């Protein structure tokens, strides 16, 4: 079996007929691994966290922009624009991943619930999508940036139950 | 031992400008100087072919080409500038099924958002200091998907030869002593 066409790299390899095993490429380790203890790593991580903290003042504005983009995708989906489902899913996925990083963990959980639904069900009722979008809207508008906000938690639990029931129904119907 | 990120060139491929900012801030915190960005899969692939980054950090859900499609193209042994390039997927997807899909595409490491500096650094450390062997089969080229040894696996794609082989390479510690 021929080797990959990489002129800069000639790795050790073993051909087993059905598969070839190529030895780990260690050029990055040779170039970038350096001395230093846990304290150096901690200092590096602290610097990274400090950089992240310096962005935090912009997070509410970023979240508002991301949510506007999600709402637009939702509006297009309701209007059944072409390829609108894929776009909506992508925006929900973005919200699912980014919300907690940007300081809105409960918005991330609402998006997580919707993402799971869209990933499992062929058709998610519009009213269910709207309930999720509405929850995210309220969380951002009220600047709920803690994980244990009592009303926020109650709303998320209701969405989780709704999603769980719908997914169970769909799985039963498939069985 | 730590990773000296000043010696590495990173490429971030993410359609969210905010996530690119967050990732860049963390990488700069690690000391990285060369951090390239692309806002979709196609642009990212072009940047990969042009700049040959050392490590690719990419999102899963993106327009034009998604993260797994980009990964498969990077892993093309005959056309890619570096089919061995470490790829770290940073995504909101957390399902086991998704992790498996990413591995099947040739991803090295999987990082579920929300992102933390430690989570990202640990993935970078893993791909730099502990690279896995690459496997080439009829329909796969990428890092070894075996993280553990499942002795009773009897599926159709079980590699003939049974035992996972080990190719001896000089341990990193010896290289450290040398320098």
Explain what this protein looks like in three dimensions:
The complex is a heterodimer of chains A (175) and B (179). By secondary structure, chain A is mainly α. Chain A has seven helices and three strands, in the order E-E-H-E-H-H-H-H-H-H. Chain A has two domains: 42 residues, no CATH class; 117 residues, Four Helix Bundle (Hemerythrin (Met), subunit A) (Up-down Bundle), CATH 1.20.120. Chain A has a two-stranded antiparallel sheet. With 179 residues, chain B is α/β, with parallel strands linked by helices. Chain B is built from six helices and eight strands. In chain B, helix 2 runs parallel beside helix 3. The radius of gyration of chain B is 17 Å and the shape is globular. Chain B starts with a strand and ends with a helix. The interface between A and B is large, with 63 and 71 residues.
SSE layout and pairing:
The complex is a heterodimer of chains A (175) and B (179).
Chain A: E1 13-15, E2 20-22, H1 27-32, E3 33-34, H2 38-55, H3 59-78, H4 84-101, H5 105-120, H6 126-141, H7 150-174
Chain B: E1 2-3, E2 9-13, H1 17-29, E3 34-38, H2 41-51, E4 55-58, H3 67-74, E5 87-91, H4 96-105, E6 109-112, H5 117-129, E7 134-137, E8 140-143, H6 172-178
Parallel strand pairs in B: 2-3, 2-4, 4-5, 5-6
Antiparallel strand pairs in B: 7-8
Helix pairs in contact in B: 2-3
Brief account:
Helices cover 68% and strands 5% of the residues of chain A. With 175 residues, chain A is mainly alpha-helical.
Beta-strand content estimate of chain A: under 5%
The gross shape of chain B turns out to be globular
Count of strand segments of chain B: 8
User: Structurally, how many domains make up the residues of chain A?
Assistant: 2
């Amino acid at each position: 079996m021929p080797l990959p066409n990489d002129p800069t790299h000639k790795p050790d390899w073993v051909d087993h007929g059905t598969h070839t095993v190529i030895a780990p490429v260690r050029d990055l380790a040779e170039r970038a691994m350096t001395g230093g203890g846990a304290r150096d790593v901690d200092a590096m991580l602290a610097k990274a966290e400090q950089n992240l903290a310096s962005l935090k003042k912009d997070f509410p504005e970023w979240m508002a922009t991301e949510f506007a983009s999600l709402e637009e995708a939702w509006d297009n989906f309701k209007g059944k624009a072409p390829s609108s489902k894929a776009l909506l899913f992508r925006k929900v996925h973005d919200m699912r991943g980014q919300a907690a990083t940007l300081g809105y963990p409960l918005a991330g959980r609402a998006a997580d619930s919707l993402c799971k639904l869209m990933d499992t069900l062929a058709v998610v009722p519009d009213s269910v999508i709207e309930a999720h979008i509405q929850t995210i809207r309220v969380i951002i508008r009220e600047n709920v940036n803690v994980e244990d906000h009592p009303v926020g938690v109650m709303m998320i639990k209701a969405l989780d139950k709704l999603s769980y029931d719908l997914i169970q129904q769909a799985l039963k119907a498939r069985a | 031992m730590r990773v000296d990120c000043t010696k590495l060139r990173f490429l971030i491929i993410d359609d969210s400008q905010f996530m690119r900012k967050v990732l860049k801030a963390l990488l700069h915190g690690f000391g990285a100087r060369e951090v390239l960005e692309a806002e979709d899969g196609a642009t990212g692939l072009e940047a990969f072919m042009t700049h040959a980054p050392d490590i690719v950090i990419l999102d899963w859900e993106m327009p034009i080409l998604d993260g797994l499609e980009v990964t498969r193209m990077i892993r093309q042994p005959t056309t890619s500038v570096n089919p061995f390039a470490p790829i770290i997927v940073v995504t909101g997807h957390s399902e086991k099924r998704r992790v498996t899909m990413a591995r099947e595409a040739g991803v090295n490491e999987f990082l579920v958002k929300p992102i933390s500096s430690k989570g990202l650094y640990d993935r970078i450390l893993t791909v730099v200091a502990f690279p896995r062997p690459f496997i080439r089969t009829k329909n796969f080229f990428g890092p070894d998907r075996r993280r553990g040894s499942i002795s009773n696996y009897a599926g159709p794609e079980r590699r003939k030869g049974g035992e996972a082989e080990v190719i001896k390479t000089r341990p990193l510690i010896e290289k450290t002593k040398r320098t």
